[in-house]
Amino acid sequence: MNRDTERQHATGTAVWTIGGVIVIGWALFTHGSYWRLPLNSFDAFFLAYSPVGILVLAGILWLTRAQWLPSLTRALERHTDRLDALPVSSLGLWIAVAAGLGLYAELMLIRIHASYFQLFAYFKNVSLLSCFLGLGLGYTLGPRRPVATPLVLPLLALQIAAMYVLRYQAPAEALQNPVSEQLAFGIEQANELRHIVSVYGFLAAVFAFNALCFVPLGHLVSRLMGRIEKLRSYSWNLLGSLAGIGLFYLLSYLWTGPVVWITLLAVALLPFLLRPASSLLPAGVAVLVAVGVLNISFRQTETDLFSPYQILTLNEEPGEPPEIRVNNVYYQRVLDLDPERSSLADSAAYWKNHYDLPYRFAKPRAKVLIVGAGTGNDVAAAVRNGAGPIDAVEIDPAILEFGKDLHPAAPYQAENVTSFVADARAFIRRTDDRYDLIVYGLLDSHTLLSGLSGVRLDSYVYTVEAFREARERLSDDGLIVLTFSVIGPELGRKLFLMLEQAFDGEEPFVLSTEYDRGYTFLIGERMRERAFTAPMGLTDVTAEFAAGDLLADISTDDWPFFYMPARTYPASYIAMIVVLLAISLVFVKQLAPGGSGSWSLPCFFLGAGFMLIETKGITELALVYGSTWVVVGAVIAAILLMAFFANLVVIRWGAPRPSVTYGLLVGSLVLGMVVSRWAVAGLAPGLSQIVLTALLTLPLFFSGFAFSTELKRSASVAVALSSNLLGAMLGGFLEYNSMYFGFRSLYVLAIAMYLLAFVGSLRVRVLSPA
Known about the structure:
The protein is built from 27 helices and 12 strands. By secondary structure, it is of the alpha/beta class. It folds into 4 domains: about 1-65; about 90-300 and about 570-595, no CATH class; about 310-445 and about 465-545, Vaccinia Virus protein VP39 (Rossmann fold); about 595-765, Growth Hormone, Chain: A (Up-down Bundle), CATH 1.20.1250.20. The strands form 2 sheets. The protein has an 8-stranded mixed beta sheet, with helices on both faces. Strands 1-2-3-4 form a 4-stranded antiparallel beta sheet, with no helix packed on it. α6 packs parallel to α8 (about 195-225) and α21 runs antiparallel to α24. The longest helix is centred in the N-terminal third of the chain and has 33 residues, at about 5-35. The radius of gyration is 27 Å and the shape is globular. It starts with a helix and ends with a helix.
């Protein structure tokens, strides 16, 4: 046995030993916490000890690898030979398809993770970073053999099917967010260390397995790109990535779900698996099993629908109002509160008090704007109380359709109601109408998160600047009525302070409605001069939230983290980052080739900076275009287009000196940092869109220009792209600093990353002047 073989054997033994100790310890440690949940004995045993079973199965496979590994290796070698035999004349198209598959699969898994387990919506970068890790490692393997493309579908199908089944088990309720800083997210947190460890262990396990799923996809693209000129292959990569984004967002527009997503992924992978035919069998079986599992209905009263944003679950229990859940968490009931049509139970009296409340203070025939209209309960109340013209705004078209189809009062069909599918903040900024009453419905589902957006979709609705804009849309004696599910008193204090500041020191009135933990805030000229008395059945709690002993920091457009009552550094996020970094380092050590020539420091830091300005670009454009899925998709597509055009410039005219490129890049970031706030706040909506889009385009273009220049000079396309993707992971980790310092801090971090890239570029030129 030679030294390399001995080293590999020792490494494998060490990994299995450490992994076995961790998994068995994890099971024993968490077992007690699951017994505290409403589980039967099988549920508790299954959740606590299934990792041990998986470990045993994996161990058996490892010990019997001499029997099955040679056959698998031969099949993968034949697959690699076929890839190497593809004609050079058509390689560009193959590269585009492979790159498009990678980005398509990335978007698909991000949506699935957050839909099945809300934990991934709170740790919003984890799914994305695991994809980056897998693709980056795959790119480093470019010249190595074999390429494991036939394993992609079995691995992805196993992951998706397992998460779907686990979603319906009782322990799934425990796999929520245990982070203390985000108590106001509305999910019950863990109070015991064992529960926290089990949740974080689940998160880390999915991170690691998902990264492995993407290694073959990155390897496939890298190997194909290595056969033609670097910049030309990069252009095909970018075009394919654009096509992958376009396809997935088209499917989102059509409200399709994982069954369609994974089926189309299999169809697109088919050309790579046709020869040898043996590659089709495991892929086909995996897809059929996954599709079969995803079509199993575990709860007969529930129906799932994937909107462009999230998974909506309609629960229709006999004798109960239809209930909507968003990403597996309660959102809203569809209520019939009309006494002429149905007899109201005593328990429903406070529901009616809640929805009728705004019209006890509004003037007759008030012109009403309802944002967060949902399934129509607020709209039905406006119609029922004789309001005048009603504009109802809802961001999710699927929720709006549920309201149109299910609500017994048919509020959206009323003659005086006009519905809009739009972002609430963007609608308020763009409309020229003035309203007697602006009603904020229960926008706080605590789930509205787009996989690639920088913040929760409704975050920019709840900022001081947003409330000032809403105030400008009120008539002379207009009124704002805002209801929110206040989980902790600090969050209520925060809302109180934000409304007070937006209305120049005027204090809002606050009522407890007892509906879904709702507290209603009323403020405006109509409330200023009247003596306030809480209506029958409601409680005046203004004094509770006016008290100065509650710690709360107001949300602004720069720090829109409304669900964090106070600005605290996210220590629990840092702990999670440390765990994920440790996993990433182990993967890099085991899978990535060594040697100084395997990495490009300039490309690494360019990836980190690019990730930061991408996040900043999405958040800033959300202020002027709205935080809709269309905006997010358009921004990502624009980023790829900027990189494509920058690459064409380098191909045609070459690249200037690094000092010029990086000087323009850093200068454009400084310009954006100085001017962007003024552009958003001080200009008309149409002009601010033009100015801000131009400001954000410049650094994206120069960043793409810098990367193409480094790609041209790098040892190989595998080195440049793998370093760039792994650097993007660093940018994703650094982005969490915005939770304390605000989003403008990302400008500073991005500038620092680009300066490090510039220094790395100069160092490379000194060491390799040729």
